[in-house]
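Memo to structure team: turn this sequence into structure tokens by end of day. - J.P.
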Amino acid sequence: MKANRTLDVVSLRSDERCDGCERTSRRRFLGQVSSGALAAAIAAELTLSDAAALPVTESAGRQTHPDERTYPLPAADGATIDRDAQIILVRYQNRIFAFGLACPHENTALRWRQQDLRFQCPRHESKYQPDGTFISGRATRNMDRFAVRRTGDSIVVDLNQWFRSDQQAPQWNAAVVQL
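Reply from structure team:
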């Protein structure tokens, strides 16, 4: 039987509080964990134990324009965390998505739960499918998506086009690259 494993990605804001909740600030988290240690923790915690696994890696995209980040086209299903840009790039079932790193409910960094193949907010346990669709919890909408496009062997994320599923459903649904 597999042990429950989670991955803390990054806390985004320390100025928001919830009664009865405790959070680690981004500054504190980054001060405690070097990027090399984080990458080692990711590699140790998230392995390809079965065909349905969605491996998670950490990588920074290239800033190719003041409002864009470019990433290599993922070769297989998985998630890439870019903590500098606060983006999660996901390839899942021949589609690519770019999400904001924060849960839309309270702006807390999401965790990847390998054993459940989903994202989860550690603060109030909102759950999301790999495509960002809300499953359950205190959040009221899907994960926020960035506009994405394919350019050759790269994925370009437009940092100025951020879509909320509850307010911009057509744009949110279109924010995907089909492979």
